[in-house]
């Protein structure tokens, strides 16, 4: 069964450093998403991406964040200058469409900022 | 005002019993509703989706939707210890400016004891 994959599973970085989190969505899916979950808190939407551009973003997704689909398979989230409060699980998800289409989540990347 | 609310629990049921999980949402424009299961340290795993008022059954799981009351629930019949997890309710607005963003509740912790 096709699944969303993410790398790395765990990333440790120092405050102020740039990190890139990588995702390979399900191959025939067209919509891609990033969510994050701070430990003990709820899953929060960051951004949605379709047709090589951002279609929606939350207030969390400020200028420090960017997304890119550099080739036909990868979808990346970049944080330019990490802060302590960026420490969280970051989940990539994908779906065939919007509407009632279901979103499938990858295993996540645990980002720890020290 | 919270957008999606769930009782955080924990909800404890004996093995073989029915577990009932509830969720309310504030936005009447919400059109798609999803239940995810999340084991500790893992990513959300889609269990069920529901879009129309009424019941939808899939194996031991039944989702119920009442849009007039802005209420969605998940019933788990013949609960097993392996069902012990956090259950997340997620809601998606209809079209317009929404491109698939899911809004999650805090999650209900379910414990099924032998």
Structure, explained:
- The complex is a heterodimer of chains A (114) and B (114).
- Chain A is mostly beta strands and 114 residues long.
- Chain A has strands spanning 5-7, 10-13, 19-24, 31-37, 44-50, 53-57, 65-68, 75-79, 88-95, 104-105, 109-113.
- In chain A, strand 4 and strand 5 form a beta hairpin.
- The model of chain A has no long low-confidence stretch (mean pLDDT 95).
- Chain B is mainly beta and 114 residues long.
- Chain B has strands at residues 4-6, 11-14, 19-25, 30-38, 45-50, 54-58, 61-66, 71-76, 85-93, 102-104, 108-113.
- In chain B, strand 9 (85-93) and strand 10 form a beta hairpin.
- Chain B is globular.
- The mean pLDDT of chain B is 93.
Q: Please tally the helical runs of chain B, counting DSSP H or I stretches of 4 or more residues.
A: 0
Please report the distance between the alpha carbons of the first and last residues of chain B. Answer: 38 Å
Large-scale geometry of chain B: globular
The rounded Rg of chain A comes to 13 Å
Q: How many whole angstroms does the radius of gyration of chain B measure? A: 14 Å
Helix content of chain A: under 10%
Report the strand count of chain B. 11
Number of strands of chain A: 11
The assembly state of the depicted protein chains is heterodimer
Helix content of chain B: under 10%
Order of helices and strands of chain B: EEEEEEEEEEE
Give the number of helices of chain A: 0
The biggest beta sheet of chain A is recorded as: 7 strands, mixed
CA-CA gap between termini of chain A: 37 Å
Determine the structural class of chain B based on helices, strands and strand pairing. Answer: mainly beta
Question: H/E element string of chain A?
Answer: EEEEEEEEEEE
Q: What shape does the CA trace of chain A take?
A: globular
Average predicted confidence as pLDDT of chain A: 95
Largest sheet of chain B: 6 strands, mixed
- Name the structural class of chain A: mainly beta
Extract low-pLDDT stretches of chain A: none
């Amino acid at each position: 069964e096709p699944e969303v994959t993410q790398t790395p599973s765990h990333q440790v970085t120092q405050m102020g450093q740039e990190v890139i989190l990588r995702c390979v969505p399900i191959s025939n899916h067209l919509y891609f998403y990033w969510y994050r979950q701070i430990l003990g808190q709820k899953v929060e939407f960051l951004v949605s991406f379709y047709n090589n551009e951002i279609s929606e973003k939350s207030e969390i997704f400020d200028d420090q964040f960017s997304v890119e689909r550099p080739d036909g398979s990868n979808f990346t989230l970049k944080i330019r200058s990490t802060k302590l409060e960026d420490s969280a699980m970051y989940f990539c998800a994908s779906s065939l469409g919007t509407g009632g289409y279901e979103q499938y989540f990858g295993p996540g990347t645990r980002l720890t900022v020290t | 005002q919270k957008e999606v609310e769930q009782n955080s629990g924990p909800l404890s049921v004996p093995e073989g019993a029915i577990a009932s999980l509830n969720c309310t949402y504030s936005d009447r424009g919400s059109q798609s509703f999803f239940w995810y299961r999340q084991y500790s340290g893992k990513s959300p795993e889609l269990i069920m989706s529901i879009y129309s008022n009424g019941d939808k059954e899939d194996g031991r799981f039944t989702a119920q939707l009442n849009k007039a009351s802005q209420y969605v629930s998940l019933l788990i019949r013949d609960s097993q210890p392996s069902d012990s997890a956090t259950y997340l309710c997620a809601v998606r607005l209809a079209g317009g400016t929404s491109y698939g963003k899911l809004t999650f509740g805090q999650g209900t912790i379910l414990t099924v004891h032998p």
